[in-house]
Every structure is written in C-alpha cells, then in structure tokens.
Amino acid sequence: xxxxxxxxxxxxxxxxxxxxxxxxxxxxxxxxxxxxxxxxxxxxxxxxxxxxxxxxxxxxxxxxxxxxxxxxxxxxxxxxxxxxxxxxxxxxxxxxxxxxxxxxxxxxxxxxxxxxxxxxxxxxxxxxxxxxxxxxxxxxxxxxxxxxxxxxxxxxxxxxxxxxxxxxxxxxxxxxxxxxxxxxxxxxxxxxxxxxxxxxxxxxxxxxxxxxxxxxxxxxxxxxxxxxxxxxx
Length: 233
Ligand SMILES: Nc1ncnc2c1ncn2[C@@H]1O[C@H](COP(=O)(O)OP(=O)(O)OP(=O)(O)O)[C@@H](O)[C@H]1O
Ligand SMILES: [Mg+2]
Fold this sequence. Notes:
globular; binds magnesium ion
C-alpha cells in the first residue's frame, strides 16, 4: 500500500432540491503510511465534511476516495464498516460514555474484534491508559476526570486497537494551551510508535509542529500544502 488515503476529484453536496449546495470541490489529497498531516482552514471551509468522508462515515458522491488501497466510492456498507475498524477517531469533545470507567471506555474499542478475549482487552486497556499517564485512574468515570484527562482517555481509546489511521477533529479545542499541547504531543508520539498515519484538523497554531505536512482548505477547496520543517527532531 503506497498511500493510506488517496483522494482524487472529490466533490460533495449537502441539502436537497433548491437547497442543495456544493461543499467540497475537486479535492485531491494523499497521505502516506506513517505520515502526520494537519488540516487547517476557516470555519465552514469543509474540514469536518472531508474528515467524515475519509472516515467512511458518509457516502462518497463524486470522485475517488481510496482508503487503505480500496475504493470507498460506491463501497458496500459492510466494506465501509470494515474500513472504519482500522481508524481511530478523536473528536473535539471526548465522547466518552459517562456510565463506564476510563478502562471500560478504552476496552469498548477492542470489543469490536470478536477474536479478542476479555482478559486480553482488559490488559491492553490498562497498559494504554498507563501510557497516557492515567494508570492511577482506571476506575474513574469521566465525571471524575479533568478535561485534559478525559481527552487522554479518548486518545487511549482511539489508539488501543492499533489503527492504521487516526482521524482527529479539533482534539485540543476544548483544552487550555498547555494541556492541548500535551494531548497533541501524546497523539503524535503514540501514532509514530505504531506507524499510524494521522489526519488532524485544528485551528490551534501551537500544535502545528507535530505535522510532517500542513494542508489548508478554503471554501471547500485545498488551497495550500506545505512540508513542515522538523526543527529539533
Ligand atoms: N449535515 C449538514 N447539512 C447541511 N450542511 C452542512 C452539514 N454539515 C455541514 N454543512 C455545511 O457545510 C459547510 C462545511 O462544514 P464543515 O463542518 O465541514 O466545516 P468546517 O471546516 O469543519 O468548519 P469548523 O471549523 O467550524 O468546524 C458549512 O457551510 C456547513 O454549514
Ligand atoms: Mg469542523
């Protein structure tokens, strides 16, 4: 597989009838295995729409979107579900389940794999939470964790299944500066260790440094793509 994501001529519309409006125009974007790409751009430029298309969370309407070497345009539902399992999602809000402990929230990802057994899932979730610095808070429900801790649980949940791709939509937006940077660095470190690619949407200039490449969107189009310099790495 030469590219994790390979998009050509992608177009997308929202709404029906007279309200139908084009949101994405002729988008081309490719991401290599292990590459970390940050997607920026003004509010309403189509970043989340693009991310949900790549995440196989919506159907492709126009153009080609190859994920892990397989075409998503006109893919069957079960193919899309199978591809989704290879992706770790991180959202702006942590989306943890309030009635489950930190560990149970992380274990949930692994329950999608029918071959794993309960003890193994528990061990993997425990180890992953230790990696994100929450080894002492395994049994805490989200309500007893700070914003940064909740987002670290979300990072553990996204990465525990060893995804090939991490899709993150403004994962630091609800956090203060320092905590946001810590969470971004954590996502980067864990993904690099595993060789996972990342596509991360952010408005936060302080975390641009984790990227190999920065891609900018405006009015539904990719307007600029630049290699990022890796000072000090
Ligand atoms: N489900 C939907 N139905 C109709 N229009 C939508 C829908 N979702 C998004 N849009 C419109 O599509 C455009 C792009 O939205 P999108 O959420 O992708 O932008 P964004 O770049 O993620 O913005 P932000 O930085 O504010 O999150 C906007 O004009 C938005 O109003
Ligand atoms: Mg958005």
